[in-house]
Amino acid sequence: MEIILLERVEKLGTIGDVVTVKDGYARNFLLPGKKALRANEANRKLFEANRGKIEADNAARRGEAETHSANVEGKSVVLIRASSNAGQLYGSVSVRDIVDALNADGADIGKAMVVLERPIKTIGVFDVKVSLHPEVAVMVKVNVARSTDEAEQQAAGVDVIKAMFEDEAAADAASEFEGGGGELPEGEAAPAAEAPAAEDAAEDEEA
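The structure assignment produced for this chain is given below.
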C-alpha cells in the first residue's frame, strides 16, 4: 500500500514522504495511529492544504518532548526478580514493569514509548530506548538483579554471574584439595626435588 507519512517513522521516512508498505502494517499500525494517510489523490490534496499546520504541530510536540527528556534521559531503575543460579529469570521483565519503575521515579511516560527489542529474561544491566516523540529518543538503564546488594554490584560494573561461577570453582578446588588430605589431585605431579649442588656431588665422589 502507498501512504503519505504524517510524522517521522523510523526506517520509513519523515513528514510528507510517500512510501510503500505492507497492507497489514498500514491497516494495523500506521493508519489507525494517524501516522499516515492512504496516498490517493484526495488525500494528497488534503495533506498539501494542511501541511503547514501538520509541520507546526509536529514541531510543538517535538519541543515538548525535548523538554520532557530531561526527566527521563539517563535514569536507572532497579527491578528485583528471582532467577536460577545461571541468572535465568523465572519469567521475564515486561514493558509495563519498566514503565512503572520509571514513573515511580518521576519519568511520566506511557507503555507505547518504551522500545524493548527483545524480552529481558536474565539478570543484568540493560540499555532501553524510550521514544518520547518520533524525533526524540533517550536511553535509560534497567538493572535486573536478585537483591539490592547484587544490583549495586552490577551498577558498579561487576558481572555477578561470572563472579559467582568463579567463586564456586575456587570453592570446589579448595574442597577437593582438603578432601585429598592436602595432596594434589590425581594426574598432577609434585614438583621435582632439587638436584644436589655440584660441590656436594664432588664431595661424595672423593669420599
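Interim note for the steering committee: The helical segments are 23-30, 41-68, 95-104, 148-155, 160-179, 198-206. The beta strands are 2-5, 18-20, 36-38, 76-80, 88-93, 114-115, 120-122, 124-133, 136-145.
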